[in-house]
């Protein structure tokens, strides 16, 4: 495959608006078209005898790549084809154009997560064209509704594999990146492989009051009571969980890359932990790493300008720190609100998944580390960490204890804001490197213990 057609397949994928708008609101026409599209651009994947393809939940795709050595436990690569909405306003180029300009492919899904869908299939296509037969079997699961919780895609694939008795050595999904420019004073990029992710709660708060004429308002209305309750929640941060372990481990691994005196501070968190945790609270991204976050995302009340509203509702999205549980957070929330007129309705809730191993025996973690070292030799630090977002991988905890969330891409604060924001784009070079990473990773995974010699050239 030449360079142009390599990136051309991404342009085509971005062009198909596979938008998840809201619960049960998907662009099914686009999702069906996307299925036909991957079929047409990766013909070898679809016609190879040892690659089985199944459509699950109507639009998700499960590929089973049969390896030659049944004694090796299979693994799975995840990605998702749906994207969040992208109104045209504010974009440098239309978000579904997939335009390639100045070395970048532009558009919704270029970082989250059509890049991974296309790179995984492209790497497999290239390997198959070179007559490669894997030793270790693997699955590729491409969800179609990750952006609305994965109930019809990932969850169904997970149930199907469980019913078939499949147990996996590990899973690799989207999540963290090679981070560049997130920490002042740290000029060098570092790779964070997320070994867990935050839990989540969507909580609806509701206040019912007697409606009436606005010319003689009561002292308190449903809107006023609810507004005060959500404001208390916003103004009362959840406890700082810095001391609980994982983040400490990440910072200790980063310590020696910092200049004096930060290196000393981070190497002695037993002493400076409280100081570091307070500093982390000051920035909204690092704050998300040390605590359960509270985001007021929806507020609804009122039917007419001169009617006292009978009901007011607000939805709050909490991201639960891995050291807490949904139950603990709900208790705290009730104590903060402390108003019996406010009703609580949990719309959805999921505890943080268990922390996956990152020691020397952890095959998935070590394979990622090895491949990062080979494809990104300039990256000195690879450390385990937390993913602040949620991924489809949380639906697969029944199949493995080793779940790793890592995109082999550089991410800086500006590109971080483009994910779910505006002007999402990927450099052609970054996409090609992602393909190379997966191409090498699949071969590295053929090891039973030691890395095996393999092709480096695409
Ligand atoms: C000391 C280290 C500093 C680290 C800085 C951290 C920078 C953050 C880097 C990457 C985070 C990106 C998270 C991307 C994954 C999110 C996928 C997503 O959007 N999922 C949805 C799922 C939901 C169920 C709809 C979500 O809202 O989380
Ligand atoms: Zn995503
Ligand atoms: Zn997303």
UniProtKB/TrEMBL annotation:
Keywords: Hydrolase, Metal-binding, Protease, Zinc. InterPro entries: Bact_exopeptidase_dim_dom, Pept_M20A, Peptidase_M20, Peptidase_M20_dimer. It comes from the Eukaryota. Pfam families: M20_dimer (PF07687), Peptidase_M20 (PF01546). Residues 196-339 form the Peptidase M20 dimerisation domain. The keyword Metal-binding applies. It catalyses: N-(9Z-octadecenoyl)-L-glutamine + H2O = L-glutamine + (9Z)-octadecenoate; (5Z,8Z,11Z,14Z)-eicosatetraenoate + L-phenylalanine = N-(5Z,8Z,11Z,14Z-eicosatetraenoyl)-L-phenylalanine + H2O; N-(5Z,8Z,11Z,14Z-eicosatetraenoyl)-L-serine + H2O = (5Z,8Z,11Z,14Z)-eicosatetraenoate + L-serine; an N-acyl-L-amino acid + H2O = an L-alpha-amino acid + a carboxylate. Pathway: Amino-acid metabolism; Lipid metabolism; fatty acid metabolism. The keyword RNA-binding does not apply. Secreted enzyme that regulates the endogenous N-fatty acyl amino acid (NAAs) tissue and circulating levels by functioning as a bidirectional NAA synthase/hydrolase. It condenses free fatty acids and free amino acids to generate NAAs and bidirectionally catalyzes the reverse hydrolysis reaction. Some of these NAAs stimulate oxidative metabolism via mitochondrial uncoupling, increasing energy expenditure in a UPC1-independent manner. Thereby, this secreted protein may indirectly regulate whole body energy expenditure. Belongs to the peptidase M20A family. PANTHER family: N-FATTY-ACYL-AMINO ACID SYNTHASE/HYDROLASE PM20D1 (PTHR45962), N-FATTY-ACYL-AMINO ACID SYNTHASE_HYDROLASE PM20D1 (PTHR45962:SF1). This is Peptidase M20 dimerisation domain-containing protein. It comes from Felis catus (Cat).
């Amino acid at each position: 495959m030449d360079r142009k057609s390599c990136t051309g397949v991404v342009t085509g994928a971005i062009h198909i608006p596979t938008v998840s708008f809201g619960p049960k609101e998907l662009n099914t026409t686009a999702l069906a078209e996307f299925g036909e599209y991957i079929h047409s651009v990766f013909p070898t994947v679809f016609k190879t005898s040892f690659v089985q393809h199944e459509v699950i939940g109507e639009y998700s795709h499960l590929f089973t790549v049969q390896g030659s050595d049944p004694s090796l436990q299979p693994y799975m690569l995840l990605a998702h084809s749906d994207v969040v909405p992208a109104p045209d306003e504010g974009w440098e180029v239309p978000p579904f154009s997939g335009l390639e300009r100045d070395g970048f492919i532009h558009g919704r899904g270029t970082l989250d997560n059509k890049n991974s869908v296309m790179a995984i299939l492209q790497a497999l296509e290239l390997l198959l064209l070179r007559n490669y037969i894997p030793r270790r079997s693997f699955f590729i699961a491409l969800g179609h509704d990750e952006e609305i919780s994965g109930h019809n895609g990932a969850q169904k694939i997970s149930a199907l594999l469980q019913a078939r008795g499949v147990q996996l050595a590990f899973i690799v999904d989207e999540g963290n990146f090679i981070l560049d420019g997130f920490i002042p004073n740290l000029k060098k990029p570092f790779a964070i492989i997320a070994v867990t992710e935050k839990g989540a709660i969507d909580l609806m708060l509701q206040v019912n009051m007697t409606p009436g004429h606005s010319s003689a308002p009561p002292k308190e209305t449903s809107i006023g009571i609810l507004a005060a309750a959500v404001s208390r929640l916003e103004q009362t941060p959840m406890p700082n969980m810095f001391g609980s372990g994982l983040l400490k481990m990440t910072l200790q691994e980063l310590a020696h890359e910092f200049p004096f005196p930060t290196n000393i501070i981070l190497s002695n968190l037993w002493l400076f932990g409280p100081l570091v945790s307070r500093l982390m609270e000051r920035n909204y991204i690092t704050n998300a790493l040390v605590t359960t976050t509270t985001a007021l995302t929806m507020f609804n009340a009122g039917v007419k300008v001169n009617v006292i509203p009978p009901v007011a509702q607000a939805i709050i999205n909490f991201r639960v720190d891995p050291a807490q549980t949904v139950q603990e957070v709900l208790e705290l929330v009730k104590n903060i609100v402390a108003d019996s007129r406010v009703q609580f309705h949990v719309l959805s809730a999921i505890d943080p998944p268990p922390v996956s191993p990152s020691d020397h025996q952890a095959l998935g973690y070590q394979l990622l580390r090895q491949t990062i070292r080979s494809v990104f030799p300039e990256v000195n630090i690879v450390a385990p960490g937390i993913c602040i977002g949620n991924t489809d991988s949380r639906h697969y905890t029944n199949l493995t204890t080793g779940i790793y969330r890592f995109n082999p891409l550089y991410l800086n604060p500006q590109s971080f804001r483009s994910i779910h924001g505006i002007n999402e784009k990927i450099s052609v070079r970054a996409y090609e490197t992602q393909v190379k990473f997966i191409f090498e990773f699949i071969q590295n995974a053929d090891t039973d213990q030691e890395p095996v010699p393999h092709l480096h050239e695409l």
